[in-house]
C-alpha cells in the first residue's frame, strides 16, 4: 500500500465539509436565512453577530443589488465538499490523498480570491466594521480557511512526492524488467529476430569449463594462505604443482612447507622480470598459473610483478589467474563443493562463480546448494558413471543428445543402444536414494535385460525407507518445545517416548499416532534402552517415521550418542533435534541464574550416577563456580558425602563448605514445579520432609540465592557468607517455592 491521507487531514476534511455545507445553505436560501427570516434559527450563530452587518456580501446590500459572487462561491463550495466526501470514502486508496489535495488547494485559493477581492475594492464590504470586530470576526475566521488547508495541502504534497520518489527508485532498479517505448525500427528488428530459427548469442558471459590437469605442471606464485589453498585444489586435480616465491621456504605457510618436505610440491625461490618468468615457465612446461600475492620480492612493486607474470603467461598462451586482478586474469577459480561418495570423495562437484563480482557471496551460494542436495547424491553420480562404463563400450556419446523417450529397436546391434537409453531413463526418473543403493549385480542385470529394472512410478510394491529422529522435548512446558520438535511430533508415524517426558508434552501427540512409552525403572535402564532402540530400528525398516522422544536435550545425559551409533551401525543415520536442557532451563524457571557477575563466573554440569549406577567423581569447590548435578536427587546422601567429605577419589578438589546454598529443582516448567532451597548441611533433612517430585536436579553454589529479594551479588567481593545465608533463609533450615510464575499462563500450554 502506498501513501495514504493522514488522519488529522481526514478529520479536517470531515469537519470543514459540515461547516461549508452549512454556509452554502445560508447563501442559497437568502433572505430566509437572515435575521427575522423563516429559517434564521438554523443559522443562529451567524445571526447572533449578526454576520449580515459584518460582511455585506453575506447581507442585504449584495442581495438587493443582485451580486452573484455570493451564490457563485456557494456553488464552488458544493464542488469542494464533493471532493472531500470522495476522498474520505476512498479511505486508504492511493487516489484518496490526490483528491484531498485538489480539494484543499481549491479551499485555500477560493478563500484567497475572496480576501483579494475585498482588498482591491478598498474594503467595500467590510471596511465599515469597528477594528476589533473586523479582525476577530472577519479576518481571523477567513484566514483559518487559508492557513489550515495550506498546511494540509503541503503535508499531502510532501507525502506524495516521497512516495513517488520511492517508486521511481524501485523502477530504476528494475529497468531491465521494464517494457520500454521503442521506435518503429526497433520493433521491426525485434520481430525479425523472433522469426530467426536459432537463438541469438548474448555476449559478456565467461565460459565455464572443467579443466583436467592430471600429470600436467602447474604454477602457484605466492607465499600466503591462499597459495596453500590453491596448492591443495590443484593437488586434488592430480596436477604436478610448482610453487614459486621470493621468500625462503621457512617463511611460507606451514602447510606449504609440509607439502614441500613430503615431495608433494616443487618449491623454487624465484624473482625476476618478464623474460625470466617466461623462461621459467617454458623450462618447467607450465600449463596453468595461479598468482595469489604478487609482491614476491622486496624491491618489486606488486603491480609490476603482476604485469610481468601476466605478460609471460600470455606470451606462452598459458591460462593465468591473478588474485583480485581480473584485468590480469584469463580465468577465475569458482567456489567448489565436492560431494562425498560411498568410499571417499565422489565425482560430483558443484562450482559457483560470480566472475569476480562477489567471491564471498559465491561461497554462500555454494554452501546453500550443497545443503539442499541429498547427502548420497555423490554416490548416485558414481553409480551412474559405472552404469555408463558398462553400457558404453559399443555406444557413441552422440546418443546423449537423442530425445529421452525416442523408441529404440530391440534387434541386433541396437541392443547396446537400448542399454544406454536405460541409463538415461534411470538418470532422469530414479530417486537419488535408489541410484546410490545400486549394487554391481543390479547394474549388470538391468543392462543385460535379465531383470528389467522398473521405473519408480511403476514400483507399487517397493517398501519405503523410514527415518529416525532423536527429539529433545525440553524441560516440560509445551511452549518450550522447539518448532522442529513440534513438527516431528505432528508428522511422526511412531513415537517412542522416555518415561519422564511430561504428560503435557505427550498430550500434544496426535491420537492417531502410535505411541510407546519406555518401561524404565531402577535396575532396568539398560534393558529399556535396548528395547527402545530395537523398536525404533524395526519401525524405520518398515518405512515408519520414528521419533525417539527424550526429555531435555538428547545429547545432555540423554544417551543420545549411544542411539546414534547403534542406528548408524544398522544402516540408519538418525537426525538429532536439540531440546532446551533442564540443566539451564530448570534453574531459570525458579529465578536462579547459573552465572551472575559478582557471584558465579563458571558453570559446571555433571551427572550424579555413572554407567550401571557406579559412583562418579565430582569437581572440587570453587567459590565462583555453579555446579549442576543431573540424576543425583535419588542419591543425595552419596552426593553430599562426596561434596563435603574428606579428600578422596569421589571428589577432584577442595571440599564444599556445609553452609553453601543448594537448590533442588523438581519438574521444572511444569505446573507443579518446585524448588527446595537450603544448605548442604540441611538439604537431606529438607528432602525427607517433603514428597519428592521427579525428575529433579541439584544446583550447588552461591548463584542459588543471588536473586532472592533485593539480591546479593557481592559474594565474590568478600561478603559475610554465613550472614548472607542466614538472611536468605530467614533463620529456617530450608524453604520451598511451588508453581509457575503467574505470567506463564500467557504462554500456550497445549
UniProtKB/TrEMBL annotation:
<dbReference type="InterPro" id="IPR028281">
    <property type="entry name" value="Sirohaem_synthase_central"/>
</dbReference>
<dbReference type="InterPro" id="IPR035996">
    <property type="entry name" value="4pyrrol_Methylase_sf"/>
</dbReference>
<dbReference type="GO" id="GO:0032259">
    <property type="term" value="P:methylation"/>
</dbReference>
<dbReference type="InterPro" id="IPR014777">
    <property type="entry name" value="4pyrrole_Mease_sub1"/>
</dbReference>
<keyword id="KW-0808">Transferase</keyword>
<dbReference type="GO" id="GO:0019354">
    <property type="term" value="P:siroheme biosynthetic process"/>
</dbReference>
<dbReference type="GO" id="GO:0004851">
    <property type="term" value="F:uroporphyrin-III C-methyltransferase activity"/>
</dbReference>
<dbReference type="InterPro" id="IPR000878">
    <property type="entry name" value="4pyrrol_Mease"/>
</dbReference>
<dbReference type="InterPro" id="IPR050161">
    <property type="entry name" value="Siro_Cobalamin_biosynth"/>
</dbReference>
<keyword id="KW-0472">Membrane</keyword>
<dbReference type="InterPro" id="IPR036291">
    <property type="entry name" value="NAD(P)-bd_dom_sf"/>
</dbReference>
<dbReference type="Pfam" id="PF00590">
    <property type="entry name" value="TP_methylase"/>
</dbReference>
<keyword id="KW-0560">Oxidoreductase</keyword>
<keyword id="KW-0949">S-adenosyl-L-methionine</keyword>
<feature type="domain" description="Tetrapyrrole methylase">
    <location>
        <begin position="468"/>
        <end position="683"/>
    </location>
</feature>
<dbReference type="Pfam" id="PF13241">
    <property type="entry name" value="NAD_binding_7"/>
</dbReference>
<comment type="similarity">
    <text>Belongs to the precorrin methyltransferase family.</text>
</comment>
<keyword id="KW-0520">NAD</keyword>
<dbReference type="GO" id="GO:0043115">
    <property type="term" value="F:precorrin-2 dehydrogenase activity"/>
</dbReference>
<keyword id="KW-0488">Methylation</keyword>
<dbReference type="InterPro" id="IPR003043">
    <property type="entry name" value="Uropor_MeTrfase_CS"/>
</dbReference>
<keyword id="KW-0489">Methyltransferase</keyword>
<dbReference type="Pfam" id="PF14824">
    <property type="entry name" value="Sirohm_synth_M"/>
</dbReference>
<keyword id="KW-1133">Transmembrane helix</keyword>
<keyword id="KW-0627">Porphyrin biosynthesis</keyword>
<feature type="domain" description="Siroheme synthase central">
    <location>
        <begin position="347"/>
        <end position="371"/>
    </location>
</feature>
<dbReference type="InterPro" id="IPR014776">
    <property type="entry name" value="4pyrrole_Mease_sub2"/>
</dbReference>
<keyword id="KW-0812">Transmembrane</keyword>
<dbReference type="InterPro" id="IPR006366">
    <property type="entry name" value="CobA/CysG_C"/>
</dbReference>
<feature type="transmembrane region" description="Helical">
    <location>
        <begin position="137"/>
        <end position="161"/>
    </location>
</feature>
<comment type="similarity">
    <text>In the N-terminal section; belongs to the precorrin methyltransferase family.</text>
</comment>
<protein>
    <recommendedName>
        <fullName>precorrin-2 dehydrogenase</fullName>
        <ecNumber>1.3.1.76</ecNumber>
    </recommendedName>
</protein>
<dbReference type="Pfam" id="PF14823">
    <property type="entry name" value="Sirohm_synth_C"/>
</dbReference>
<dbReference type="InterPro" id="IPR028162">
    <property type="entry name" value="Met8_C"/>
</dbReference>
<feature type="domain" description="Siroheme biosynthesis protein Met8 C-terminal">
    <location>
        <begin position="374"/>
        <end position="449"/>
    </location>
</feature>
Amino acid at each position: 500500500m502506498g501513501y495514504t491521507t493522514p488522519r488529522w487531514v481526514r478529520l479536517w476534511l470531515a469537519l470543514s465539509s459540515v461547516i461549508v455545507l452549512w454556509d452554502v445553505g445560508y447563501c442559497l436560501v437568502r433572505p430566509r436565512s437572515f435575521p427575522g427570516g423563516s429559517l434564521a434559527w438554523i443559522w443562529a450563530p451567524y445571526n447572533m453577530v449578526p454576520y449580515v452587518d459584518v460582511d455585506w456580501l453575506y447581507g442585504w446590500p449584495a442581495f438587493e443589488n443582485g451580486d452573484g459572487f455570493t451564490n457563485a462561491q456557494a456553488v464552488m463550495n458544493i464542488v469542494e465538499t464533493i471532493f472531500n466526501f470522495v476522498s474520505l470514502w476512498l479511505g486508504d486508496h492511493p487516489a484518496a490523498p490526490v483528491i484531498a489535495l485538489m480539494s484543499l488547494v481549491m479551499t485555500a485559493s477560493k478563500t484567497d480570491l475572496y480576501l483579494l477581492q475585498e482588498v482591491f475594492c478598498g474594503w467595500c464590504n467590510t471596511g465599515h466594521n469597528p477594528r476589533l470586530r473586523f479582525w476577530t470576526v472577519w479576518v481571523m475566521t477567513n484566514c483559518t480557511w487559508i492557513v489550515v488547508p495550506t498546511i494540509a495541502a503541503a503535508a499531502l504534497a510532501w507525502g506524495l512526492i516521497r512516495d513517488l520518489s520511492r517508486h521511481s527508485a524501485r523502477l530504476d532498479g528494475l529497468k531491465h524488467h521494464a517494457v520500454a517505448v521503442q521506435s518503429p525500427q526497433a520493433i521491426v528488428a525485434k520481430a525479425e529476430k523472433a522469426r530467426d530459427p536459432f537463438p541469438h548469442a548474448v555476449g559478456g558471459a565467461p565460459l565455464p569449463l572443467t579443466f583436467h590437469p592430471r600429470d600436467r605442471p602447474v604454477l602457484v606464485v605466492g607465499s600466503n594462505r591462499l597459495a596453500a589453498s590453491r596448492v591443495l585444489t590443484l593437488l586434488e586435480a592430480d596436477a604436478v604443482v610448482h610453487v614459486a616465491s621470493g621468500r625462503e621456504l621457512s617463511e611460507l605457510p606451514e602447510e606449504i612447507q609440509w607439502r614441500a618436505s613430503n615431495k608433494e610440491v616443487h618449491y623454487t625461490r624465484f624473482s625476476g622480470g618478464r623474460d625470466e618468468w617466461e623462461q621459467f615457465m617454458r623450462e618447467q612446461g607450465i600449463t596453468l598459473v595461479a598468482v595469489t600475492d604478487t609482491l614476491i620480492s622486496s624491491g618489486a612493486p606488486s603491480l609490476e610483478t603482476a604485469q610481468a607474470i601476466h605478460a609471460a603467461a600470455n606470451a606462452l598462451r598459458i591460462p593465468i589467474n591473478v588474485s583480485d586482478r581480473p584485468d590480469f586474469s584469463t580465468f577465475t577459480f569458482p567456489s567448489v563443493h565436492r560431494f562425498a561418495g560411498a568410499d571417499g570423495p565422489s565425482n560430483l562437484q558443484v562450482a559457483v562463480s560470480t566472475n569476480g563480482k562477489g567471491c564471498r557471496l559465491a561461497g554462500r551460494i555454494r554452501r546453500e546448494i550443497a545443503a539442499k542436495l541429498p547427502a548420497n547424491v555423490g554416490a548416485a553420480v558414481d553409480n551412474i558413471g559405472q552404469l555408463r562404463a558398462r553400457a558404453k563400450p559399443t555406444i557413441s556419446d552422440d546418443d546423449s543428445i537423442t530425445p529421452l523417450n525416442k523408441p529404440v529397436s530391440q534387434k541386433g546391434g541396437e541392443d547396446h543402444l537400448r542399454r544406454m537409453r536405460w541409463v538415461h531413463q534411470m538418470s532422469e526418473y530414479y530417486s537419488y536414494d535408489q541410484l546410490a543403493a545400486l549394487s554391481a549385480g543390479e547394474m549388470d542385470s538391468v543392462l543385460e535385460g535379465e531383470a528389467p529394472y522398473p521405473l519408480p512410478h511403476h514400483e507399487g510394491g517397493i517398501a519405503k525407507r523410514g527415518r529416525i529422529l532423536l527429539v529433545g522435548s525440553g524441560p516440560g512446558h509445551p511452549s518450550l518445545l522447539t518448532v522442529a520438535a513440534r513438527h516431528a511430533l505432528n508428522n511422526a508415524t511412531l513415537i517412542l517416548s522416555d518415561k519422564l517426558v511430561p504428560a503435557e508434552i505427550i498430550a500434544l501427540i496426535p491420537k492417531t499416532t502410535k505411541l510407546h512409552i519406555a518401561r524404565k525403572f531402577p535396575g532396568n535402564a539398560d534393558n529399556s534402552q535396548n528395547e527402545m532402540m530395537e523398536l525404533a530400528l524395526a519401525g524405520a525398516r518398515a518405512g515408519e517415521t520414528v521419533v525417539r522422544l527424550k526429555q531435555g536435550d538428547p545429547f545432555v545425559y540423554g544417551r543420545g550418542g549411544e542411539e546414534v551409533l547403534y542406528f548408524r551401525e544398522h544402516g540408519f543415520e538418525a537426525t538429532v533435534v536439540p531440546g532446551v536442557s533442564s540443566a539451564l532451563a530448570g534453574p531459570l524457571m525458579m529465578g536462579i541464574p547459573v552465572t551472575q557477575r559478582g557471584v558465579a563466573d563458571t558453570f559446571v554440569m555433571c551427572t550424579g550416577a555413572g554407567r550401571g549406577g557406579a559412583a562418579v567423581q565430582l569437581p572440587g569447590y570453587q567459590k565462583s563456580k555453579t555446579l549442576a548435578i543431573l540424576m543425583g536427587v535419588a542419591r543425595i546422601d552419596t552426593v553430599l558425602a562426596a561434596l563435603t567429605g574428606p579428600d578422596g577419589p569421589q571428589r577432584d578438589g577442595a571440599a564444599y563448605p556445609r553452609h553453601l546454598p543448594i537448590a533442588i529443582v523438581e519438574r521444572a516448567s511444569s505446573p507443579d514445579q518446585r524448588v527446595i532451597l537450603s544448605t548442604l548441611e540441611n538439604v537431606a533433612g529438607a528432602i525427607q520432609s517433603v514428597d519428592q517430585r521427579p525428575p529433579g536436579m541439584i544446583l550447588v553454589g552461591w548463584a542459588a540465592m543471588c536473586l532472592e529479594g533485593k539480591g546479593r551479588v557481592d559474594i565474590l567481593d568478600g561478603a559475610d557468607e554465613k550472614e548472607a545465608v542466614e538472611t536468605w533463609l530467614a533463620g529456617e533450615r530450608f524453604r520451598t517455592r511451588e508453581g509457575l510464575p503467574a505470567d506463564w499462563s500467557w504462554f500456550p500450554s497445549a
